[in-house]
Amino acid sequence: MRTTGLKLQLLREKHALTLDEMAFRLCLSPQYYAAIEAGFVDAPSAVLDAFALVLGIHSEDILKMPCTEKCCAHPEIYDMLGLFAGPKFSMDRA
C-alpha cells in the first residue's frame, strides 16, 4: 500500500498540487487522501469506492466503464491503479 501512496505523492508533487487539490481530483476528503498517501488505506479500493459514490453505481461497474467527466483524476492515476483511464483529462480540469 505504501508504494501506491508514494506514487500518488510523487504525481501530486509533479503537478504542484496540494493535498486538498489532489483529494478533490480523486473525489476524496483531504483526510482520507492523506491516509492513502501515507499508506494507511488501500488506494485502489478507496478510489473505486469514492468514484462509485460520486457516480451512484457499484464499484465493480467502474472497472467496466471508461472515465467520465465526473471522475476528474489524471490518466496517470488510473494507470497506476490499474484502471482504464478513458478520455485524457488535464490536471487543471476539475
Question: How would you sum up this structure, described in words?
Answer:
With 94 residues, the chain is mostly helical. The protein has a single domain (2-81), classed as lambda repressor-like DNA-binding domains (434 Repressor (Amino-terminal Domain), Orthogonal Bundle). Helices cover 56% and strands 0% of the residues. It has six helices and no strands. It has helices at 2-14, 19-25, 30-38, 43-55, 59-62, 75-81. Helix 1 packs antiparallel against helix 6 (75-81) and helix 2 (19-25) crosses helix 3 (30-38).
Outline the fold blueprint:
Layout: H1 2-14, H2 19-25, H3 30-38, H4 43-55, H5 59-62, H6 75-81
Helix pairs in contact: 1-6, 2-3
CATH class: Mainly Alpha
CATH architecture: Orthogonal Bundle
> In one word, what is the shape?
globular
The CATH homologous superfamily corresponds to lambda repressor-like DNA-binding domains
How helical, in percent, are the residues? Answer: 55-70%
Question: CATH topology, which one?
Answer: 434 Repressor (Amino-terminal Domain)
Order of helices and strands: HHHHHH
Strand content: under 5%
Class from secondary-structure proportions = mainly alpha
Largest sheet: none
**How many domain units?**
1
Give unreliable regions as ranges.
67-72, 84-94
What's the quick description here?
By secondary structure, the protein is mainly α.
